[in-house]
């Protein structure tokens, strides 16, 4: 068990926890409202963690001030999109390390004993489970946990479903609706007579619910993440689809065959920094390859596999279109059709984003695949 230690009138310690994989702080000092942003930033850059014991709202202001200082080193567009992407990821990792040095202590039952602090116990209970004594976390992580509970309570409205989906902490939220719309409008195989469908990497369960709403007799949704499986089950219950959708895992494919297999893998073939990145990064395209390699043996005659994939990796120079088509061909599959759409999220319009040109040209596609 990782433990941080510090002096506060006497030696103290607490369990260290980081969902984003931040390393155990080796040196910890106590900080409060008297510490300036300049000093906090310098100590954090040197690798010293700051255990905050002052006012909670002042801690948030300090974090914003530190972030402004980190932002001065943000990279602009480089020579190629791939170089820009690598520099941008490196900067984001540096930013996470520096800002992650500002810590707070969650005491027993996830109590945050700071002045003007909100009651974080419900949010921490949902994210971390039962309390196991004092635990130190980065303030950035705690703010993410609080935000995640707000998203979970409010939900994300999905027009294609005509309902809200409620993401849990650590589960990728369906805020980019264009990929859901593709699954909503693609023609169903077998003339619409889909008896069984698989949704691989279900996340919140949004696509599994959509397939059920489109008339699939039985939908089996899988995910490698226990959090995602719990989230999907929660949403299935909320939507009243418990008799149609079954959540399984952690394997990619469930047992049996299906008339339709849908997979929306992470779009970027790069190594995730932590489990929180698994919705975005697919190391070496492993999930994509697993879907393609297993599809032929899991389809019923006349069935189809729907691959929902952005071409962002191609535009970043991380995977070519030929590599994708060769992988499809090598798996013994053929392309029946392809439906395309443009993203509508806010980052497409963010001209300050060093990857703006790539994001503005991005196309998301639904590839209809069948056995060759």
TrEMBL record:
GO molecular function: nucleic acid binding; protein-glutamine N-methyltransferase activity
PROSITE patterns attached to this UniProt entry: N6_MTASE (PS00092)
Domain annotation Methyltransferase small: ranges: 195-269
InterPro entries registered for this protein in UniProt: DNA_methylase_N6_adenine_CS (IPR002052), N5-glutamine_MTase (IPR050320), SAM-dependent_MTases_sf (IPR029063), Small_mtfrase_dom (IPR007848)
EC number, as in UniProt: 2.1.1.-
CDD domains named in the record: AdoMet_MTases
Pfam families in UniProt: MTS
Database matches in PANTHER family: HEMK METHYLTRANSFERASE, MTRF1L RELEASE FACTOR GLUTAMINE METHYLTRANSFERASE
Protein's name in the database: Release factor glutamine methyltransferase
Lineage of source species: Bacteria, Bacillati, Actinomycetota, Actinomycetes, Kitasatosporales
Gene from which the chain derives: prmC_3
């Amino acid at each position: 068990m990782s433990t941080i230690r510090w002096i506060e009138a006497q030696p103290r310690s607490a369990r260290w926890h980081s969902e984003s994989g931040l390393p155990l702080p080796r040196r910890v000092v106590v900080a409060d409202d008297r510490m300036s942003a300049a000093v906090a930033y310098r100590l954090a850059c040197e690798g010293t963690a700051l255990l905050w014991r002052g006012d909670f709202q002042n801690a948030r202001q300090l974090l914003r001030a530190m972030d402004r200082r980190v932002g001065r080193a943000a990279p602009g567009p480089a020579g190629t999109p791939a170089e820009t992407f690598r520099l941008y990821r490196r900067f984001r990792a540096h930013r996470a390390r520096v800002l992650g040095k500002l810590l707070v202590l969650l005491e027993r039952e996830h109590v945050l004993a700071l002045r003007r602090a909100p009651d974080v116990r419900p949010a921490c209970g949902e994210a971390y489970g039962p309390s196991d004594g004092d635990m130190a976390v980065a303030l950035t992580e705690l703010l993410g946990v609080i935000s995640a509970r707000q998203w979970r309570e409010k939900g994300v409205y999905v027009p294609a479903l005509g309902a809200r989906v409620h993401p849990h902490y650590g589960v990728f939220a369906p805020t980019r609706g264009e990929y859901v719309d593709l699954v909503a409008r693609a023609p169903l195989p077998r003339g619409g007579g889909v008896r069984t469908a698989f949704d691989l990497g279900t996340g919140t369960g949004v696509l599994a619910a959509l397939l059920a709403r489109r008339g699939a007799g039985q939908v089996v949704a899988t995910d490698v993440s226990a959090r995602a499986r719990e989230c999907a089950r929660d949403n299935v219950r909320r939507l009243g689809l418990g008799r149609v959708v079954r959540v399984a895992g952690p394997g990619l494919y469930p047992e049996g065959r299906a008339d339709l297999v849908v997979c929306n893998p992470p779009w970027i073939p790069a190594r995730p920094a932590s489990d929180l990145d698994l919705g975005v990064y697919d190391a070496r395209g492993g999930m994509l390859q697993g879907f393609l390699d297993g599809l032929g043996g899991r389809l019923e005659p006349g069935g189809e596999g729907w691959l929902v994939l952005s071409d962002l990796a191609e535009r970043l120079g991380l995977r070519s279109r030929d590599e994708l088509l060769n992988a499809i061909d090598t798996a013994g599959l053929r392309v029946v059709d392809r439906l395309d759409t443009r993203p509508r999220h806010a980052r497409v319009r963010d001209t300050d984003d060093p990857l703006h040109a790539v994001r503005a040209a991005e196309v998301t596609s639904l590839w209809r695949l069948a056995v060759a």
